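Slide 14.
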Amino acid sequence: MGETIFVGGGGEGYSAPQNLLLKYGNRHGLIAGATGTGKTVTLQVLAEGFSAEGVPVFMADVKGDLSGLAAAGSENHKLHEAFSKRAAQIGHTIAYRAYPVTFWDMFGQAGHPIRATVAEMGPLLLSRLLELTEPQEGVLNVAFRLADEEQLPLLDLKDLQALLTFIAEHDSEISARYGLVASTSIGAIQRRLLVLENQGAAQMFGEPALELADLMRVDANGQGVVNILAADKLMNSPRLYATFLLWLLSELFEDLPEIGDPEKPKLVFFFDEAHLLFNDAPRALVEKVEQVARLIRSKGVGIYFITQNPADVPEVILGQLGNRVQHALRAFTAKDQKDLKAASETYRPNPRFDISDAIRDVGTGEAVTSFLEAKGIPGVAERTMVRPPNSQLGPIDPMLRAGVIATSPMGAKYNTPIDRDSAYERLRGKAEAAAREAEAAEAHAREDEARRKEDEREYSRARRYDGEGYREPARRASRSDSLGTTLAKSFVRQLGTRTGQAVVRGILGSMFKR
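Slide 15: predicted structure.
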């Protein structure tokens, strides 16, 4: 085990060896550059370095080619000759090898299912995911508050759907208690949830929910496990992708203890396609990300954003990314040139070359790098050839992937979903109990009506003429109904109306049909 991760170097005109100091691995980082400039290789190299030093890694595989970390590179690979040449230039010896990998997949197809409960996701992130307006977000907040106060666990989407239906059918009472709950807002949220279900996101919510400790494992040899989330299909729903990863960051932030400045990170989190997190994000969400990025490093977690352009990341967050690898940026338009200039100004100047020119001109697999030095000072910008990866470049064979998944201990824990007692079941139980009480009250009312008619018949038979007039027989004493019985009778009377019929149909029908 060492104290640094070797990233690259170069010969004449390039930098001396460039190393990322492990003790500053939790100071976050940025990997940026245009498509096809080598970001994926850099990501793979850093993941290998952290894993070899016993640091667990979490990354999303957006293009489907990071699975190669689970297999050793090969001299038969088409790029082996080019890799060997580059290794010689930077004074590096390639040691082809595989790394311990766990595959995850929100849809449960290319890895173990990875889930969160609706309650864990919370109203802020769920509102972002559903693209709700401010009034609709207010209704969602009411739903979460009601669930907490009435002990209705929100675990999966059907729990939330059942609760929203309940709120819609009791909107007057709930509005009086929490503020206006508009039926139009409830309907809009329900339609958004339906869209989410159609995208396959229902599988994301439920149990067993992911335990963070399972992302922070080391293998028997002390190597950090590389957790790879299959995101190629997930990218069809970019907002879902960004929201899920933000939820994961939030959970890490809230659950992990403060540890100060560790000798090495407890976990390194790579956020590919980072621009998706910030596109059209409300200010409250950006502020939350900024808070997480600023404080989570003291919990031993490093966040590395991967994106095409540093301008994709808000300045308040960009300023916290201490370790940087900037691949080529093209400057074809005035905006491109402005972005290039802005990117170069975030580096510590190097008197040997112009940083803007270097960022524009570096070739594939090369970058302008800056890593934190002693006392956390940003290093001078350097032109760097990124070292070749030790693991396979590109995706592994599907059979090999299936074998890795089959032998993983995470399968027994997460592959089978659990559907325990929660809001859906409890609201259904209350509805069924209400229906039974209504039936009993209706039957009781029928008995009372039959008794009343029998009393009338007896009265008619007993009524007789005594020469002066009709003698009235004594009437049977009426029963005194309890408050509960009175209310039950009142409810039964409502059942005879169209409104009452609609209530029962709503409770027993639409709420619980799947």
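Speaker note: The longest helix spans residues 423-462.
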